[in-house]
Amino acid sequence: MASSTNNNQPFGIKDKIAYMCGDFGNDFFFILISQFLMVFYTSVLGINAGVVGTLFLVARFVDAFTDIGMGRIVDSAKPGKEGRYRPWIRRIRIPVVLAGVLVFIPWVANLPYALKIVYIFVTYILWGSFCYTAINIPYGSMASAITTDPVERAQLSTFRSVGASLAGVIVGFVAPMIVYVKDEAGNQVLVGERMFILSLIFAVCAFICYTICYKWSTERVVTETKTAEKKTSAKDLVKGLVGNRALVSIIVAAIVLLLAMLLAQSMNVYLYQDYFKNTKAMSIASLLGTACTLILAPFSGKITKRFGKKEASSAALLFASAVYVFLFVAKIKNPWVFCGIILLGNLGSGLFNLMIWAFITDIIDYQTVMTGSEDGGTVYGVYSFARKLGQALAGGLGGYALALIGYQSGAGIDQTEAVKNSIYAVATGVPAIGYLIIALILIFWYPLSKKKLEEIREELDKRAAK
C-alpha cells in the first residue's frame, strides 16, 4: 500500500485544536451518558438496574460488528479531496447529536414498562453502536493521516486528551448543579426535564466542536486504497491482529481501564448523591480531575520522551492504585477530604490517559512492521470496540452491583447504611484493583518499550527509503 505526503499546509496549532475539538465533541455525550444515563434510567424512567445492565451488554455485542465493520469501510474507502476520514465527520455530526438527545427524553417515563424498555434499547444502540461509531472510528484513525511525525502524533494525543478533559469538566461540574434538586426530605433528586434541556445544549456544543474538527484539520498523508490483489484476506487480517501482542495487551488494559474509570464514575453519582449527600462535591471533584489533566499536559511529552510511554505510565498507575487502596481502607466520611485525596489519584492515572492515543499510534506502526499491511482503521476499530466493551462492562456490572447490594430505584428514596457503605467500597476498591492490573500489564505483557519503539521507527524509515 503506497502513501504520499502533502506538505502544502504544514502541521500547526490549527491541527491540534481541530483534533482536540473532535474528542471535545464526542465526550459531551460520551461522558454525560457514562455518568448519568444509569441514574436517569433508574430514577427518572423507573427502569430496573439489572435491565439497564443487560442493555449495555447487548449493545456491546452489536458493537463487535459495527466498530470493526466501520474500520474496514474506512480502510477500503477511496480518499477524496477532503481526505479519507474527514468526510465522515461532516456526514455524521448531525445524526450523532440528535441520537444523543433522544436518549434523554424524560416523557418516556409515562409509557408502559415494556415500551420503555423497547425505547431505551433502540435509542441507546442507535446512538452508541451506529452514530457514535460512524464518527469516532474515522476521527480516531485520522491522526495517522494528519502527520507521520512521532512527536506531532504525541501532541495530537495530548490535545485529544485535553479536549476530553474540557468536556469532562463541563459535564462533571455543570451537569450536577443543573439536573439535581433537593426534595423536602433533603435527598438529591435528578429532574428528567432538566436533563433533557441540558442534552439539547450539549448537542449544540458538540455540533460546533465537530464542525471545527472538520474544517480545521488537514489530511496530509494520502494512502492508496488496496487493489483486489493487495487486499488482506479476513483470515490473514485476524491472524495479524491476534498475533499483535501490543494490540492484545492494550485491549485488555483498555477494558480494565474503562471498567475501573467508568464503574467508579457511575458509582460516584450514587456516592455523592446517597453516601455523602452532597452533589456539589461531585462537581468539585470533576473540576479537580480536569485540573490534573491540564497540569500534566505540558509535561507529559517531556516525561514520556525521557522515560518512555510504557515505563512512565506503569509507574504512575502504581501510584494511583496506592491512593485508592488508602481511600478504600480509610472509609472517608467528609466529601471534601475525599475530593482532595482523589486529586492525588488523578495525578497518577492522568499521565496514562494523556498518552493512551499515542500508544495506539505506536501499535499501528508495530502492526505495519509485523504484517507489511496498513490497516489503521481496522486496528482502531478493534480498539474502539474494546473501549466500548469496557464501558459496557462498567455500566452492566454497575447495574448488577446496584441490584446486588439492594439499591432501591426511584426518586427521593433514602438508601440503607449497608447500601451506602457498599457503594463507597465499589467506588474506591474497583479503581485500586484496576489501576494495579493495568500497571502489571504494561510492565510484563505490553512489548513496546522505549527501546523497542526506536527499533520500529528505524525499520519503518528503512522501508520508506527503499
From TrEMBL:
The keyword Membrane applies. GO terms for cellular component: plasma membrane. The chain crosses the membrane at residues 29-62, 92-111, 117-137, 158-181, 196-216, 237-261, 281-300, 312-329, 335-360, 392-411, 423-448. InterPro entries: MFS_2 (IPR039672), MFS_trans_sf (IPR036259), Na/Gal_symport (IPR001927). One of its GO terms (biological process) is sodium ion transport. This is GPH family glycoside/pentoside/hexuronide:cation symporter. It comes from the Bacteria. Keywords: Membrane, Transmembrane, Transmembrane helix. SUPFAM superfamilies: MFS general substrate transporter (SSF103473). GO terms for molecular function: symporter activity. The gene is uidB_2. The lineage of its organism: Bacteria, Bacillati, Bacillota, Clostridia, Lachnospirales.
